[in-house]
Every structure is written in structure tokens, then in C-alpha cells.
Amino acid sequence: MRKAPTILHLDMDAFYASAEQASKPSLRGKAVVVGGLGPRGVVATASYEARVFGVHSAMPMGQARRLAPNAAYLVPRFGLYKAISEQVMGLLRELSPLVEPLSLDEAFVDLEAGGAAWDEASARLVGARLRADIRAVTGLTGSVGLAASKMLAKIASEQAKPDGLVVIEPGTER
């Protein structure tokens, strides 16, 4: 077991919808739903503003339209999302040579793989700096979890949502 919380999990917040809001200022602060717009379409992601109305990922688009009729409904622009993802993954590779992308908007990073010595305070600082760098480079937010295992780091990032940082120190798990 690791002695410091050196597994980092990053999960970008409402990634596709947030990317659309960042690229189109008129959408900022508004309910945005991204997904298939046809009769059998499914929500890929919803902005936090749309989630207030009960819209969520994997929901049939027809149901989303009933819940949030005034939201902006958009088809995915994977080229945009891939470009932003490459920027974010580049920031992660600056932290460690061992980056494990799970999708365009989610990855694990093994901070110990870089060879530096780590403690809870330095890991927390890296997590905070990463969040600030992501915001500066992309205009988007991400949630960061740090722990001694992948499973706990993922749980920590879920607890950090949206736009937060949660550290689970080894030995404090319950």
C-alpha cells in the first residue's frame, strides 16, 4: 500500500456541454444538452444548468426535451472535444509519464512514476495546480481525486464534483 495519495483521478465536469459553453459564449450559464437529436437520440451529457431540470446522461432525448424544453440541444462535435482532451492530457503528462486515459474526459495519473518523493501536502498542491492549469488552458473545470488506489481516487473525484479536489489519505479510508 502506498504511503501517500499519489494516484490522481481527473474527471472533467459535464465535458461535452462545458466545451460547447466555452466555445459559444451565448450558451454560458444556460441549459445545454449534447447528444443524438433524432427520435431515438440519447443524451451524451447535460450541463449542470440542465441537470437542475432532471436531465442526465443516457436519458432518451425526448424525455430530456420534456424536462427542459428551453435548453439548447446540440449534436456532439467530437473534433472540438478531442482537441480539448489533447490539451488536458498534455497537462497530465507534465505530472507523470504514467497517464492512463479512460475516455476523452477522464484519466488516472500515477504521480510516483515520475520518481519524485510525495506526501499528502505535495499531492494536494499538484491537484490544485492541475485544476487551475486546466481552467487557464481550456476554460473548463475538472474534478480531482487523490488516493493510494485507483478505486479510491475515482470515488474521491466523484465526491469532488463539480470543480473540486478531494484527497483520501492512506489509513483514513472507511
Strand order of the largest sheet: 5-6-1-7-8
Q: Mind summarizing the main beta sheet? A: 5 strands, mixed
The first-level CATH class of the largest domain is given as: Alpha Beta
The gyration radius over C-alpha positions equals 17 Å
Low-confidence stretches: none
Helix content: 25-40%
CATH level-two architecture of the largest domain: 2-Layer Sandwich
Number of structurally distinct domains: 2
Number of strands: 8
Number of helices: 6
Kindly report the name of the CATH homologous superfamily of the largest domain: Reverse transcriptase/Diguanylate cyclase domain
Task: Report the average pLDDT across residues.
Answer: 96
The ordered H/E elements are EHEEHHEHEEHEHE
First-last Cα distance: 15 Å
Main structural class: alpha/beta
Shape: elongated
What name is given to the CATH topology of the largest domain? Answer: Alpha-Beta Plaits
